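A quick aside before the break. I want you to see a complete sequence-to-structure record at least once, exactly as it would be stored in a machine-readable document. Don't worry about memorizing anything.
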Amino acid sequence: MPDTPSKPPLTLRLCQPRGFCAGVDRAIQIVVLALKKYGAPVYVRHEIVHNRYVVEGLQNLGAVFIEELNEIPDEHHHSPVVFSAHGVPKSVPADAQARSLFYLDATCPLVSKVHKQAMRHQRLGRHVLLIGHAGHPEVIGTMGQLPEGAVTLIETEADVAAFQPQDAEALGFVTQTTLSVEDTAGLIRALQARFPAITAPSAESICYATTNRQEAVKETAAGADLFLVVGAPNSSNSKRLVEVAERAGAKMSLLVQRASEIPWDDIGQISTLGLSAGASAPEIIVDEIIDAFRARFDVTVDLAVTATETENFPVMSALRDVELTPSDMAFVNGTV
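That is the input. The structure line, written in tokens, reads:
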């Protein structure tokens, strides 16, 4: 009987923390609790979080995803509509009220904090500069907290150089919560060099989960033959992790949504793999990818713990009378 060929050894550096953050966990809970309390359909404006696995799982439970409120049929105007974790412009809840819709706002509390920081700048007479990426839902939501013309989006140092304020002594900045810490620091330095009187937000805008996941990737990427980040192509924080891994020394860094997207023919011979997941990627997909490598390699998992996260954001009072079953919680936590 021929010997079974041995699998090549592979050290898998698994980042911790990774995956769901408290804001994502809360947003998914809100949809699940609303379905249990009010029944299907529950409408969700925009993807509740940027992950197809999560979205499809919620669709299977009875959630209906829409882009605009006018997509809700008249006969369902009493059904709840949930606003996504990324936040929405003020015009959206105003439109919901005008349509007599019952809405639940799942905006991450850390995004809401940025909204308040921007509004405070404006209230104190400052023009607001928002460091972020054009077209991202969070940026649209933050800019939509203030009157048109009150916010200028800054994406690059060229934008800093080109910006001509009416009053250089009356400027304040905030940032999108899911940016690269290093890139954002560079833009802030450029703003402060050009406009020394610019006022920073009262607290850090980039969220703890973004910072923690980037720090974990920095610690594990150096010397990795391949670094995989589980996340969606429209997930800002996931794409930033790919960039961080490349800068930190990974030979190749890729974003994948599922194990089926791993380009086995292109990755070549590898002996060290780094693995992390964006803040909206469920743990079950991380497990799926580890299993895919176990099928091809003799895998040794090296857990790289760089922080412990204990944050918990409670849901709104309207949903606190509903209890989640263990299977509900497994879905919310991304383990099924």
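Two observations worth writing down. DSSP finds twelve helices and twelve strands in the chain. Residues 22-108+312-332 form a domain with the Rossmann fold fold (CATH 3.40.50.11270). We'll return to this after the break.
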